[in-house]
Amino acid sequence: MSEGNDGRKYSLETFLIHGNPIDAAWEYSHHVIPPLTASTTFRLDSTGRGAEGFRNFAAVPGSPESERPIYIYDRLGEPTVGLLESSFMQLEGGGSATAFASGMAAISGVLLALCRQGDEIVAHRTIYGCTYSLMINWLPRLGVNVKFTDCRQPAQVETLITPRTRVLYLETPANPTLEVVDLAEMAAIVARANAGRSEEDRVRLVVDNTFATPYCQRPLAHGADIVVHSLTKNVMGFGTDMGGMVVGPKELHAAIRLVRKDFGGVVAPRAAWNILVYGLSSLAVRMDRQMDTARKVAAWLENNPHVACVYYPGLKSHPQHELARRQMVDFKGRFAPGLMIYFELGGPAQGLAERSAKFMDHLANKAYTVTLAVSLGQAKTLVEAPALMTHSVYGDKASTAGLSISSMRLAIGLEDADDILSDLDAAMKAIA
Ligand SMILES: Cc1ncc(COP(=O)(O)O)c(C=O)c1O
Question: Does the C-beta of 381 come closer than 6 Å to ligand 1?
Fold first, then answer.
Protein backbone atom coordinates (compact mmCIF):
# COMPACT_ATOMS: atom_id res chain seq x y z
CA MET A 1 0.00 0.00 0.00
CA SER A 2 1.15 3.53 -0.66
CA GLU A 3 -0.32 6.82 0.49
CA GLY A 4 -1.60 9.65 -1.71
CA ASN A 5 -1.55 13.41 -0.95
CA ASP A 6 -4.82 13.21 0.99
CA GLY A 7 -3.73 10.20 3.05
CA ARG A 8 -5.83 7.74 1.02
CA LYS A 9 -4.29 4.33 0.41
CA TYR A 10 -3.33 3.19 -3.09
CA SER A 11 -2.05 -0.18 -4.25
CA LEU A 12 1.62 -0.74 -5.00
CA GLU A 13 0.63 -1.37 -8.64
CA THR A 14 -0.53 2.25 -8.78
CA PHE A 15 2.61 3.34 -6.92
CA LEU A 16 4.72 1.74 -9.69
CA ILE A 17 3.17 4.28 -12.10
CA HIS A 18 3.20 7.41 -9.92
CA GLY A 19 6.11 6.90 -7.49
CA ASN A 20 7.02 9.59 -4.95
CA PRO A 21 7.07 12.97 -6.71
CA ILE A 22 8.48 14.70 -3.64
CA ASP A 23 11.57 13.90 -1.63
CA ALA A 24 13.35 15.74 1.14
CA ALA A 25 15.93 17.29 -1.20
CA TRP A 26 13.77 18.18 -4.18
CA GLU A 27 10.19 18.61 -5.32
CA TYR A 28 9.11 17.20 -8.68
CA SER A 29 5.36 17.31 -8.40
CA HIS A 30 4.95 19.78 -11.27
CA HIS A 31 6.32 17.20 -13.71
CA VAL A 32 4.13 14.47 -15.14
CA ILE A 33 7.29 12.56 -16.03
CA PRO A 34 10.07 12.91 -13.43
CA PRO A 35 12.85 15.22 -14.60
CA LEU A 36 16.14 13.78 -15.77
CA THR A 37 18.99 15.87 -14.42
CA ALA A 38 22.37 16.12 -16.09
CA SER A 39 24.68 17.85 -13.67
CA THR A 40 27.52 15.90 -12.10
CA THR A 41 28.03 18.60 -9.48
CA PHE A 42 25.71 20.94 -7.59
CA ARG A 43 26.08 24.58 -6.54
CA LEU A 44 26.53 25.00 -2.78
CA ASP A 45 25.02 28.02 -0.98
CA SER A 46 27.88 28.42 1.52
CA THR A 47 30.98 26.66 2.81
CA GLY A 48 29.11 25.72 5.94
CA ARG A 49 26.23 24.22 3.98
CA GLY A 50 28.67 22.27 1.80
CA ALA A 51 30.46 20.94 4.89
CA GLU A 52 27.13 19.95 6.43
CA GLY A 53 26.20 18.16 3.20
CA PHE A 54 29.42 16.13 3.28
CA ARG A 55 28.97 15.32 6.96
CA ASN A 56 25.42 14.09 6.48
CA PHE A 57 25.26 12.72 2.95
CA ALA A 58 24.94 9.14 4.25
CA ALA A 59 22.59 10.05 7.11
CA VAL A 60 19.95 7.45 7.85
CA PRO A 61 16.63 8.35 6.15
CA GLY A 62 14.32 9.88 8.76
CA SER A 63 17.12 10.78 11.22
CA PRO A 64 17.61 14.44 12.34
CA GLU A 65 20.87 14.56 10.27
CA SER A 66 18.88 13.68 7.13
CA GLU A 67 16.47 16.58 7.56
CA ARG A 68 18.38 19.15 5.49
CA PRO A 69 19.74 17.06 2.60
CA ILE A 70 21.46 18.67 -0.35
CA TYR A 71 22.93 17.31 -3.51
CA ILE A 72 26.70 17.75 -3.76
CA TYR A 73 28.17 15.46 -6.38
CA ASP A 74 26.64 12.60 -8.42
CA ARG A 75 28.65 9.83 -6.79
CA LEU A 76 27.25 10.78 -3.36
CA GLY A 77 23.63 11.15 -4.40
CA GLU A 78 21.62 12.49 -7.31
CA PRO A 79 17.95 13.51 -7.81
CA THR A 80 16.84 10.97 -10.46
CA VAL A 81 18.71 8.13 -8.75
CA GLY A 82 17.16 9.30 -5.46
CA LEU A 83 13.66 8.88 -6.93
CA LEU A 84 14.46 5.32 -8.00
CA GLU A 85 15.81 4.56 -4.54
CA SER A 86 12.77 5.94 -2.77
CA SER A 87 10.53 3.80 -5.02
CA PHE A 88 12.47 0.67 -4.09
CA MET A 89 12.31 1.43 -0.36
CA GLN A 90 8.56 1.38 -0.67
CA LEU A 91 8.27 -1.59 -3.04
CA GLU A 92 10.54 -3.87 -0.99
CA GLY A 93 9.51 -2.41 2.38
CA GLY A 94 13.04 -1.45 3.51
CA GLY A 95 14.42 1.39 5.63
CA SER A 96 17.08 2.33 3.10
CA ALA A 97 17.82 1.82 -0.61
CA THR A 98 20.97 2.51 -2.60
CA ALA A 99 21.24 2.21 -6.38
CA PHE A 100 24.37 0.92 -8.12
CA ALA A 101 25.71 0.78 -11.67
CA SER A 102 24.80 -2.88 -12.15
CA GLY A 103 23.62 -5.91 -10.23
CA MET A 104 27.24 -6.98 -9.69
CA ALA A 105 28.15 -3.51 -8.34
CA ALA A 106 25.25 -3.83 -5.87
CA ILE A 107 26.20 -7.36 -4.79
CA SER A 108 29.91 -6.62 -4.39
CA GLY A 109 29.05 -3.34 -2.63
CA VAL A 110 26.85 -4.98 -0.03
CA LEU A 111 29.33 -7.81 0.64
CA LEU A 112 32.15 -5.28 1.04
CA ALA A 113 30.01 -3.29 3.45
CA LEU A 114 29.24 -6.36 5.57
CA CYS A 115 32.51 -8.34 5.59
CA ARG A 116 36.05 -7.78 6.81
CA GLN A 117 39.20 -9.87 6.62
CA GLY A 118 38.68 -13.20 8.38
CA ASP A 119 34.88 -13.17 7.97
CA GLU A 120 32.90 -15.92 6.28
CA ILE A 121 29.90 -16.15 3.99
CA VAL A 122 27.60 -19.14 3.64
CA ALA A 123 25.98 -19.20 0.20
CA HIS A 124 23.51 -21.32 -1.73
CA ARG A 125 25.45 -23.57 -4.09
CA THR A 126 23.59 -22.34 -7.19
CA ILE A 127 23.89 -18.63 -7.87
CA TYR A 128 24.54 -16.37 -10.87
CA GLY A 129 27.96 -17.19 -12.40
CA CYS A 130 29.55 -13.77 -11.77
CA THR A 131 28.36 -13.76 -8.14
CA TYR A 132 29.98 -17.20 -7.79
CA SER A 133 33.13 -15.82 -9.43
CA LEU A 134 33.14 -12.86 -7.00
CA MET A 135 32.94 -15.36 -4.13
CA ILE A 136 35.61 -17.78 -5.31
CA ASN A 137 38.02 -15.42 -7.10
CA TRP A 138 37.87 -12.02 -5.41
CA LEU A 139 36.53 -12.18 -1.86
CA PRO A 140 39.18 -14.76 -0.78
CA ARG A 141 41.87 -12.21 -1.81
CA LEU A 142 40.41 -9.90 0.82
CA GLY A 143 40.45 -12.70 3.40
CA VAL A 144 36.71 -13.42 3.13
CA ASN A 145 35.92 -17.07 2.50
CA VAL A 146 32.70 -18.59 1.22
CA LYS A 147 31.21 -21.99 2.03
CA PHE A 148 28.64 -23.29 -0.45
CA THR A 149 25.73 -25.47 0.54
CA ASP A 150 22.22 -26.41 -0.49
CA CYS A 151 19.98 -23.92 1.31
CA ARG A 152 17.01 -26.20 0.64
CA GLN A 153 18.52 -28.31 3.45
CA PRO A 154 18.31 -25.98 6.48
CA ALA A 155 20.12 -28.41 8.81
CA GLN A 156 23.18 -28.24 6.53
CA VAL A 157 23.11 -24.44 6.53
CA GLU A 158 23.00 -24.29 10.31
CA THR A 159 26.10 -26.48 10.73
CA LEU A 160 28.15 -24.15 8.50
CA ILE A 161 27.48 -20.97 10.47
CA THR A 162 30.37 -20.03 12.77
CA PRO A 163 31.11 -16.96 14.94
CA ARG A 164 32.91 -15.52 11.85
CA THR A 165 29.88 -15.84 9.55
CA ARG A 166 28.53 -12.42 8.53
CA VAL A 167 26.34 -13.26 5.54
CA LEU A 168 23.95 -16.00 4.47
CA TYR A 169 23.57 -15.37 0.73
CA LEU A 170 21.10 -16.85 -1.73
CA GLU A 171 18.95 -16.33 -4.78
CA THR A 172 15.37 -17.57 -4.83
CA PRO A 173 14.37 -18.66 -7.38
CA ALA A 174 18.01 -19.53 -8.08
CA ASN A 175 19.69 -18.70 -11.36
CA PRO A 176 19.48 -20.85 -13.46
CA THR A 177 17.89 -23.93 -11.86
CA LEU A 178 14.87 -22.14 -10.37
CA GLU A 179 15.35 -23.89 -7.01
CA VAL A 180 13.23 -22.14 -4.40
CA VAL A 181 14.64 -21.57 -0.91
CA ASP A 182 12.44 -21.10 2.16
CA LEU A 183 13.19 -17.54 3.28
CA ALA A 184 11.38 -17.79 6.62
CA GLU A 185 13.39 -20.90 7.44
CA MET A 186 16.67 -19.14 6.53
CA ALA A 187 15.63 -16.09 8.60
CA ALA A 188 14.98 -18.37 11.60
CA ILE A 189 18.48 -19.87 11.28
CA VAL A 190 19.98 -16.38 11.14
CA ALA A 191 17.93 -15.28 14.16
CA ARG A 192 19.20 -18.27 16.18
CA ALA A 193 22.80 -17.54 15.12
CA ASN A 194 22.42 -13.89 16.12
CA ALA A 195 21.17 -14.55 19.64
CA GLY A 196 23.66 -12.84 21.94
CA ARG A 197 25.79 -11.41 19.09
CA SER A 198 26.75 -7.75 18.98
CA GLU A 199 25.44 -5.59 16.11
CA GLU A 200 28.89 -5.75 14.40
CA ASP A 201 29.07 -9.54 14.55
CA ARG A 202 25.56 -10.25 13.27
CA VAL A 203 24.84 -12.60 10.38
CA ARG A 204 22.69 -10.95 7.69
CA LEU A 205 20.42 -12.80 5.31
CA VAL A 206 21.07 -11.30 1.85
CA VAL A 207 18.69 -12.31 -0.95
CA ASP A 208 19.10 -11.65 -4.66
CA ASN A 209 15.54 -10.95 -5.83
CA THR A 210 16.40 -10.34 -9.49
CA PHE A 211 14.38 -13.23 -10.94
CA ALA A 212 11.22 -12.43 -8.99
CA THR A 213 11.33 -8.59 -8.77
CA PRO A 214 9.40 -6.91 -5.93
CA TYR A 215 6.26 -7.51 -7.97
CA CYS A 216 6.47 -11.29 -7.43
CA GLN A 217 8.28 -11.55 -4.07
CA ARG A 218 9.32 -9.27 -1.19
CA PRO A 219 12.05 -11.08 0.78
CA LEU A 220 12.21 -8.53 3.64
CA ALA A 221 8.63 -9.49 4.54
CA HIS A 222 9.84 -13.09 4.98
CA GLY A 223 12.65 -12.08 7.35
CA ALA A 224 15.57 -11.29 5.00
CA ASP A 225 17.81 -8.39 6.11
CA ILE A 226 18.90 -7.15 2.70
CA VAL A 227 17.59 -7.50 -0.86
CA VAL A 228 19.82 -7.02 -3.90
CA HIS A 229 18.71 -6.64 -7.51
CA SER A 230 20.07 -6.53 -10.97
CA LEU A 231 17.76 -3.86 -12.37
CA THR A 232 19.19 -4.67 -15.81
CA LYS A 233 16.73 -7.56 -16.06
CA ASN A 234 12.98 -7.76 -15.39
CA VAL A 235 12.80 -4.36 -13.67
CA MET A 236 14.29 -2.39 -16.58
CA GLY A 237 12.32 -4.70 -18.82
CA PHE A 238 13.53 -3.63 -22.26
CA GLY A 239 17.20 -4.54 -22.19
CA THR A 240 18.46 -1.00 -22.73
CA ASP A 241 20.08 -0.06 -19.39
CA MET A 242 22.07 -1.56 -16.53
CA GLY A 243 21.49 -0.94 -12.86
CA GLY A 244 21.57 -2.51 -9.43
CA MET A 245 19.83 -1.90 -6.10
CA VAL A 246 20.39 -2.72 -2.44
CA VAL A 247 17.43 -2.41 -0.05
CA GLY A 248 18.05 -2.98 3.63
CA PRO A 249 17.64 -1.70 7.15
CA LYS A 250 18.36 1.88 8.18
CA GLU A 251 21.35 0.83 10.28
CA LEU A 252 23.26 -0.33 7.18
CA HIS A 253 22.43 2.75 5.10
CA ALA A 254 25.64 4.65 5.89
CA ALA A 255 27.95 1.67 5.30
CA ILE A 256 26.41 0.91 1.89
CA ARG A 257 26.46 4.59 0.84
CA LEU A 258 30.12 4.87 1.88
CA VAL A 259 31.04 1.80 -0.18
CA ARG A 260 29.29 3.30 -3.21
CA LYS A 261 31.01 6.66 -2.67
CA ASP A 262 34.50 5.18 -2.39
CA PHE A 263 34.30 2.28 -4.88
CA GLY A 264 32.31 4.42 -7.27
CA GLY A 265 29.79 1.98 -8.76
CA VAL A 266 27.09 4.63 -9.29
CA VAL A 267 24.26 4.21 -11.77
CA ALA A 268 24.10 6.89 -14.47
CA PRO A 269 21.11 9.24 -14.05
CA ARG A 270 19.98 8.45 -17.60
CA ALA A 271 19.86 4.71 -16.81
CA ALA A 272 18.04 5.38 -13.52
CA TRP A 273 15.51 7.53 -15.39
CA ASN A 274 14.83 4.84 -18.01
CA ILE A 275 14.39 2.24 -15.27
CA LEU A 276 12.05 4.51 -13.35
CA VAL A 277 10.00 5.89 -16.22
CA TYR A 278 9.77 2.87 -18.53
CA GLY A 279 10.76 -0.08 -16.36
CA LEU A 280 8.88 0.40 -13.10
CA SER A 281 5.74 1.86 -14.61
CA SER A 282 5.32 -1.14 -16.95
CA LEU A 283 6.56 -3.82 -14.51
CA ALA A 284 3.17 -5.17 -13.42
CA VAL A 285 1.63 -5.45 -16.89
CA ARG A 286 4.80 -6.95 -18.37
CA MET A 287 5.22 -9.49 -15.59
CA ASP A 288 1.55 -10.54 -15.72
CA ARG A 289 1.73 -11.14 -19.46
CA GLN A 290 5.13 -12.88 -19.31
CA MET A 291 3.96 -15.13 -16.46
CA ASP A 292 0.87 -16.19 -18.46
CA THR A 293 3.13 -17.18 -21.34
CA ALA A 294 5.71 -18.83 -19.04
CA ARG A 295 2.96 -21.04 -17.56
CA LYS A 296 1.94 -22.17 -21.07
CA VAL A 297 5.51 -22.76 -22.26
CA ALA A 298 6.50 -24.66 -19.10
CA ALA A 299 3.43 -26.93 -19.40
CA TRP A 300 4.21 -27.53 -23.09
CA LEU A 301 7.85 -28.41 -22.34
CA GLU A 302 6.73 -30.76 -19.57
CA ASN A 303 4.65 -32.72 -22.07
CA ASN A 304 7.30 -32.80 -24.80
CA PRO A 305 8.89 -36.22 -25.28
CA HIS A 306 12.34 -34.70 -26.00
CA VAL A 307 12.48 -32.93 -22.63
CA ALA A 308 13.93 -34.76 -19.61
CA CYS A 309 13.02 -32.18 -16.95
CA VAL A 310 11.49 -28.72 -16.59
CA TYR A 311 11.74 -26.49 -13.54
CA TYR A 312 9.27 -23.65 -13.27
CA PRO A 313 7.91 -22.72 -9.82
CA GLY A 314 4.43 -22.46 -11.33
CA LEU A 315 4.38 -26.16 -12.29
CA LYS A 316 2.89 -28.57 -9.75
CA SER A 317 5.85 -30.87 -10.48
CA HIS A 318 8.35 -28.26 -9.18
CA PRO A 319 9.88 -29.73 -5.98
CA GLN A 320 9.14 -26.55 -4.01
CA HIS A 321 5.85 -25.67 -5.70
CA GLU A 322 3.92 -25.36 -2.43
CA LEU A 323 6.64 -23.17 -0.90
CA ALA A 324 6.72 -21.02 -4.06
CA ARG A 325 2.92 -20.56 -3.79
CA ARG A 326 3.39 -19.09 -0.30
CA GLN A 327 6.50 -17.06 -0.99
CA MET A 328 6.03 -15.75 -4.53
CA VAL A 329 2.93 -13.60 -4.58
CA ASP A 330 2.15 -10.32 -6.30
CA PHE A 331 0.89 -7.18 -4.55
CA LYS A 332 -2.63 -8.62 -4.50
CA GLY A 333 -1.54 -11.97 -3.06
CA ARG A 334 -1.88 -13.94 -6.32
CA PHE A 335 0.69 -16.65 -7.05
CA ALA A 336 3.44 -15.03 -9.17
CA PRO A 337 6.02 -17.64 -10.21
CA GLY A 338 7.99 -15.38 -12.58
CA LEU A 339 9.05 -15.69 -16.20
CA MET A 340 12.14 -17.93 -16.02
CA ILE A 341 12.15 -21.59 -17.05
CA TYR A 342 14.96 -24.14 -16.72
CA PHE A 343 14.91 -27.35 -18.76
CA GLU A 344 17.10 -30.15 -20.01
CA LEU A 345 16.71 -32.31 -23.07
CA GLY A 346 16.40 -36.07 -22.63
CA GLY A 347 17.47 -39.12 -24.57
CA PRO A 348 20.67 -41.18 -24.41
CA ALA A 349 23.48 -39.61 -22.37
CA GLN A 350 25.84 -40.19 -25.26
CA GLY A 351 25.51 -37.28 -27.66
CA LEU A 352 23.31 -35.26 -25.27
CA ALA A 353 25.61 -32.23 -25.29
CA GLU A 354 25.68 -32.25 -29.11
CA ARG A 355 21.88 -32.62 -29.36
CA SER A 356 21.42 -29.73 -26.92
CA ALA A 357 23.81 -27.54 -28.93
CA LYS A 358 21.97 -28.50 -32.13
CA PHE A 359 18.67 -27.50 -30.51
CA MET A 360 20.07 -24.14 -29.41
CA ASP A 361 21.73 -23.52 -32.76
CA HIS A 362 18.47 -24.26 -34.54
CA LEU A 363 16.78 -21.64 -32.37
CA ALA A 364 19.68 -19.23 -32.97
CA ASN A 365 19.46 -19.58 -36.75
CA LYS A 366 15.82 -20.30 -37.51
CA ALA A 367 13.61 -18.97 -34.71
CA TYR A 368 12.03 -15.52 -34.95
CA THR A 369 10.73 -15.23 -31.38
CA VAL A 370 13.46 -17.03 -29.39
CA THR A 371 16.89 -15.38 -29.44
CA LEU A 372 20.11 -17.04 -28.28
CA ALA A 373 21.46 -14.45 -25.84
CA VAL A 374 22.26 -14.15 -22.14
CA SER A 375 20.29 -11.78 -19.84
CA LEU A 376 16.58 -11.98 -19.17
CA GLY A 377 13.44 -9.98 -18.57
CA GLN A 378 13.17 -8.23 -21.91
CA ALA A 379 10.38 -7.84 -24.47
CA LYS A 380 12.14 -10.55 -26.51
CA THR A 381 12.31 -14.19 -25.37
CA LEU A 382 15.93 -15.21 -24.72
CA VAL A 383 17.48 -18.65 -24.40
CA GLU A 384 20.97 -19.60 -23.25
CA ALA A 385 23.02 -22.58 -22.08
CA PRO A 386 24.03 -21.74 -18.48
CA ALA A 387 26.69 -24.45 -18.06
CA LEU A 388 28.47 -23.14 -21.17
CA MET A 389 27.68 -19.43 -20.79
CA THR A 390 26.44 -17.49 -17.73
CA HIS A 391 27.60 -20.20 -15.28
CA SER A 392 30.67 -21.47 -17.17
CA VAL A 393 32.84 -20.25 -14.26
CA TYR A 394 31.55 -23.28 -12.29
CA GLY A 395 33.60 -25.47 -14.65
CA ASP A 396 33.87 -29.02 -13.34
CA LYS A 397 31.83 -28.00 -10.27
CA ALA A 398 28.72 -27.50 -12.44
CA SER A 399 27.11 -30.75 -11.35
CA THR A 400 27.57 -29.90 -7.64
CA ALA A 401 25.51 -26.79 -8.38
CA GLY A 402 22.77 -28.93 -9.92
CA LEU A 403 23.73 -27.89 -13.46
CA SER A 404 23.80 -30.29 -16.37
CA ILE A 405 25.88 -29.73 -19.51
CA SER A 406 22.62 -29.76 -21.46
CA SER A 407 20.93 -27.15 -19.26
CA MET A 408 18.86 -24.47 -20.97
CA ARG A 409 17.51 -21.27 -19.48
CA LEU A 410 14.53 -19.63 -21.11
CA ALA A 411 13.54 -16.05 -20.27
CA ILE A 412 10.04 -15.46 -21.58
CA GLY A 413 9.32 -12.20 -23.39
CA LEU A 414 6.20 -10.40 -24.56
CA GLU A 415 5.62 -12.23 -27.86
CA ASP A 416 2.51 -14.25 -28.65
CA ALA A 417 2.74 -17.51 -26.67
CA ASP A 418 1.79 -19.66 -29.69
CA ASP A 419 4.62 -18.15 -31.74
CA ILE A 420 7.14 -19.03 -29.02
CA LEU A 421 5.76 -22.58 -28.86
CA SER A 422 5.93 -22.90 -32.64
CA ASP A 423 9.63 -21.89 -32.65
CA LEU A 424 10.43 -24.30 -29.81
CA ASP A 425 8.52 -27.06 -31.57
CA ALA A 426 10.48 -26.56 -34.82
CA ALA A 427 13.77 -26.80 -32.88
CA MET A 428 12.57 -29.98 -31.11
CA LYS A 429 11.65 -31.51 -34.47
CA ALA A 430 15.10 -30.62 -35.83
CA ILE A 431 16.77 -32.84 -33.21
CA ALA A 432 14.20 -35.69 -33.37
C1 LIG B 1 20.33 -13.35 -10.45
C2 LIG B 1 21.30 -12.32 -10.96
N3 LIG B 1 21.91 -11.52 -10.08
C4 LIG B 1 22.81 -10.58 -10.48
C5 LIG B 1 23.13 -10.43 -11.80
C6 LIG B 1 24.14 -9.38 -12.20
O7 LIG B 1 23.49 -8.29 -12.76
P8 LIG B 1 24.20 -7.23 -13.74
O9 LIG B 1 24.41 -7.92 -15.04
O10 LIG B 1 23.21 -6.10 -13.77
O11 LIG B 1 25.49 -6.86 -13.09
C12 LIG B 1 22.50 -11.24 -12.75
C13 LIG B 1 22.84 -11.11 -14.18
O14 LIG B 1 22.44 -11.90 -15.00
C15 LIG B 1 21.58 -12.22 -12.32
O16 LIG B 1 20.96 -13.03 -13.17
Answer: no
Contacts of residue 385, Cβ cutoff 8 Å, sequence gap at least 6: 356, 357, 360, 406, 407, 408, 409
Residue 340 CA to ligand 1 centre (angstroms): 14
**Measured from the CB, is residue 230 less than 6 Å from ligand 1?**
yes
Distance between CA 285 and CA 349 in Å, rounded?
41
Distance between CA atoms of residues 181 and 126, nearest Å: 11
**DSSP annotation of 73:** B
Please name the residue whose Cα sits nearest to atom 16 of ligand 1.
128
First to last CA, the chain: 51
Nearby residues of 42 by Cβ (< 8 Å), 6 or more positions away? 70, 71, 72, 73
- Check pocket membership of 219 for ligand 1, CB cut-off 6 A: no
pTM of this prediction? 0.97
**How many angstroms is it from 109 CA to the middle of ligand 1?**
14
Burial of 253 (0-12, 13-18, 19+ CB in 10 A): buried
Spans of all domains in the chain: 12-278, 285-431
CA of 104 to the centre of ligand 1 (A): 6
Q: Is residue 384 within 6 Å of ligand 1 at its C-beta?
A: no
Per-block average pLDDT, block size 10, for the chain (432 residues)?
75 92 77 89 94 91 85 93 94 97 98 98 98 98 98 97 98 98 98 96 98 98 98 98 98 97 97 97 98 98 96 98 98 98 93 94 98 97 96 93 92 98 97 88
Exposure string for 392-431, b = 16+ CB within 10 A, e = fewer: ebbeeebeebbbbbbbbbbbbbbbebeebbebbeebbeeb
Kind of pairing, strands 340-345 and 407-411? Answer: antiparallel
Ligand 1 mean position, distance from CA 233 (Å): 7
CA–centroid distance, residue 107 to ligand 1 (Å) = 9
Q: Are strands 96-100 and 244-248 parallel, antiparallel or unpaired?
A: antiparallel
CATH class in words for 285-431: alpha beta
Angle between helix 103-114 and 253-263 (nearest 10): 120
- Whether domain 12-278 has CATH 3.40.640.10: yes
In the reported structure, the alpha carbon of residue 128 is separated from the centroid of ligand 1 by a whole-number distance in angstroms of 7
What is the number of the ligand 1 atom nearest to the C-alpha of 242?
A: 10
- The angle that helices 352-366 and 417-431 make with each other, rounded to 10 degrees, is 140
Q: Which among 110, 128, 382, 384 is the best mutation to test ligand 1's pocket, defined by most ligand atoms within 8 Å of the CB?
A: 128
Say if ligand 1 is within 6 A of residue 232 CB: yes
